[in-house]
Specification:
282 residues, 19% helix, eleven-stranded mixed sheet, Fumarylacetoacetate hydrolase, domain 2
Length: 282
């Protein structure tokens, strides 16, 4: 049975999708570390609900990132649109050929994105760097992978990125991708089967109450398979508490767009919900 798990400051709220809008508040006996190491993650969640009271979820609620001690990693250049955008931003520095090659290569681009303390949740603030001049969000379906390397769920991810820093030199990728407030996931963790190819991924950016960018893609546009990406992540590597893996973006604003402080980013993936974050400068 699929579940959606929301994390608050003092508990987790678990929604059984078989009975929508029915939430169980679990204050003790649940941890994301135990979930990501369980042989049967769905069974672990079901057991946690057995003695938990039912509660009402307010639609305006904010939620912490659904994470314990998991690392967050990301895959790049997995959509054709991402390949094109990355080649455009790196052309001046002569790095465009690398993005063209990795799109067609057997080995994907994988990079470390965030630790749990660096990860933001729903209605929290994400950031753009003060030394960057060209910044975008990257809406990404994000896989939940247990310590055995098996995918058991997914969530919405925002891989904040400095296009100006990475475009200056591909070796600056860690600085363009890893900094305070550069990563958000939520609003919940969906535990269940992976989404189908027709699943939509949407983003909308509002500025002073007006929409300044919107875009949409679908999972079918992802070039690489979920198990393929997870397999590469766990190759010659181990994750004692499992990991999250962002699968890349198929939505990239045109080169004349950049984020500003106060912008509100809303990323929606069918079956999960909407992750919403305001932008600040760090």
């Amino acid at each position: 049975m699929p579940f959606r798990i929301y994390r608050t400051d003092s508990s987790v709220l678990i929604e059984n999708t078989g009975t929508p809008d029915t939430f169980y508040e679990v204050k003790e006996g649940f941890s994301f570390n135990a979930l990501f190491t369980a042989e049967d993650p769905a069974g672990y969640v079901a057991t946690a609900c057995e003695s938990a009271p039912e509660v009402t979820l307010e639609s305006s609620s904010s939620f912490a990132a659904p994470i314990g001690d998991q690392e967050i990693w990301a895959a790049g250049v997995t959509y054709f649109r991402s390949r094109t955008a990355r080649m455009e931003e790196a052309e001046t520095a002569g790095g465009d050929i690398f993005y063209d090659k990795v799109y067609d290569a057997d080995r994907p681009e994988l990079f470390f994105k965030a630790t749990a303390p660096r990860t933001r949740g729903h209605e929290d603030k994400v950031a753009i760097r003060s030394d960057s001049t060209w910044d975008v969000p990257e809406p990404e379906l994000t896989l939940a992978i247990n310590s055995q390397g098996n995918i058991f769920g997914h969530t919405v991810g925002n891989d904040m990125s400095s296009r100006s820093i990475e475009g200056e030199n591909p070796l600056y990728l860690p600085q363009a991708k890893v900094y305070t407030g550069s990563c958000a996931i939520g609003p919940c963790l969906f535990v269940g089967a992976s989404p189908g190819p027709d699943t939509s991924i949407k983003v909308e950016i509002d500025r002073s109450g007006e929409t300044v960018f919107s875009g949409e893609t679908e999972v079918a546009q992802l070039k690489r398979g979920f198990d393929e990406l997870a397999g590469w992540l766990f190759r010659s590597n181990e994750f004692a508490y499992g990991a999250y893996l962002m699968t890349g973006t198929g939505i990239v604003p045109d080169s004349d767009f950049t984020l500003q402080a106060g912008d509100v980013i809303s990323i929606t993936i069918e079956g999960i919900g909407t992750l919403r974050n305001e932008v600040e400068v760090v």
